[in-house]
Amino acid sequence: MEKKLLMGNEAIALGALRAGVSVVTGYPGTPSTEILETVAKQKDSRIYVEWSVNEKSALEVAAGAAYAGARVMVTMKQVGLNVASDPLMSLGYVGIKGGMVLAVADDPGPISSQTEQDTRHFGIFSKIPVFDPSTPEEAYLMTSDAFEYSEKIGRPVILRPTTRVCHSYASVEILPDLPRTPPEGFKKDSGRWVIFPRLTYTNHIKIEVSLRELADEFSSYRFNNLTGTGNKGIATGGVSYTYVKEALGEVASEYKLLKIATVPFPGKLALEFLKDLDEVLVAEELDPVIERELIFLCGIHRLNVKIRGKLSRDMPCAGENTVDEVSKSVRAFFGEALPQPQEEKPLPKLPVRPPVLCAGCPHRGSFYAVKQATKGKKAVYSGDIGCYTLGNAMPLDMVDTCLCMGAGITVAQGLNRIELDTLNFAFIGDSTFFHTGIPGLINAVYNRSDVIIVILDNSTTAMTGNQPHPGMGISADGSAAEKVSIYELVKAAGVSKIVRADAFDLNTCIKAVKSVLDEKGVRVLLFEGPCIAVSKGGSACCVDEERCTGCKACIRQLGCPAISMRGKKAFIDQALCTGCGLCKNVCAFGAIGGGEKC
After folding, report:
1. CA distance 563 to 571
2. What is the value of pTM for the model shown?
3. Domains of the chain (ranges plus CATH)?
4. Cβ contact 248:115 at 8 Å
5. Among candidates 162, 170, 169, which has minimal Cα distance to 284?
6. pLDDT digits (tens, 9 = 90+) for 55-85
7. Cis omega before residue 59 (within 30°)?
């Protein structure tokens, strides 16, 4: 068999292709993004792929295809599941005909998310099975298992890789494609596909029976297993299983080890594990799901086994697990029975590098223009989710609130209802505007809010890797698509005051902001300038040292990572500078961008 070095997300994508997936939809979100991108690159003409405007739309498109008997996959990160939760809850009751897998990537840490969430809880809440891979190899195989189980029970299932599984690499054995059966098409049946209370009640009973049967079946599932002997044991799952194995090393077989990879919880296997044990340590990301199930089993079966983990504070209650942390906990649990690691010299602390807007980012100019135009005025700047959230960093300091996708526009409306004497700005990116910003805009128009909405259009979905969106005229596979005009859409929503400006033209942007300050109602500023990943700009700027006074205004006002001090003079790193020219406007001495010695 052929072997390939694959990222975990690539392994999931190839697992879906092997399983005969017909439709893949999703919304980009780290750490899940590469799943759909890999499918788009590897697919043939029989497979449809799209970046949907948001996760709710993605799931509903996939649901329609699954109703027609196709195998479908929907990709998102854990906070995206919040957006998709409405159709997901109903799909659990209505069911599907083809297999449906939701690849929901959890982000313990969090590394690139606004919340830490454990999708296993969502599976329990929505009564939908969850598969929790511990390695890229396992993720590859588990993806096809997930499709098979979904078709078997006639309901969606969730595949829940975490960040380290998504983005780690492994050598994966590529297996032959599974037999592909063409979708049979949609068959009308209002008693099945139209959700009504009576149908929900009837199906709820069936779901509960199915979950009990699955729990028993999962006790013999190939990725749930029990090894070793002894009176002390470790229960684990996901990437934490690999950490535990590394901590135990060659003596792993001497200790009882339970690996859990599914929801519903395989109770029969867990009872076999608990037999003859005195104490158990549970290692898992992110919440004490396995730990609570073991405590529950000990309670109803009156087992005198001490369960230790997050609830007992023997394991961290937040953040992602690491090899070092898990190893430390495992060694403490087993005491001197495990070989202790050799002492190593402590590594020096890494310098703190807070995230900042890239050199040449159009958003820096937009934020700075608003800041300059509103000097001396009482204003609140509501932000949103995207790379422009980094506008909160000093010296810009232009993000006062940030809640979730699309909330900047609506939070600004709420603030305005309480503080009528305040200018309320809402910043939102182009992709986020299409995702969930449009309802907030319409809400503002309909309810006659007094807000200034600043749409930062950089022609891409920058934060997650420059995926296309409806405003770009490009589809997920790179082919041409209909281009939706943000300007025309805002105009159609009933906004009468819309001002467009080039985000790299500072003076024009400042005038644009000032032109709407004294007006009332909903005003929209559309600042347009491509992300540096889309367009690198012109020639790099430089500093005329004879004119430079060393005042540091360019550094203190902009915070551009390309500008620093070299001795007593400002210095522009030619490797970082994109030539956006914003610093030229800030320098009062004309020392940037010209001069004989530049």
Report:
1. 6
2. 0.91
3. 3-215 (3.40.50.970), 225-337 (3.40.50.920), 362-528 (3.40.50.970), 536-598 (3.30.70.20)
4. no
5. 162
6. 999 999 999 999 999 999 999 999 999 999 9
7. no
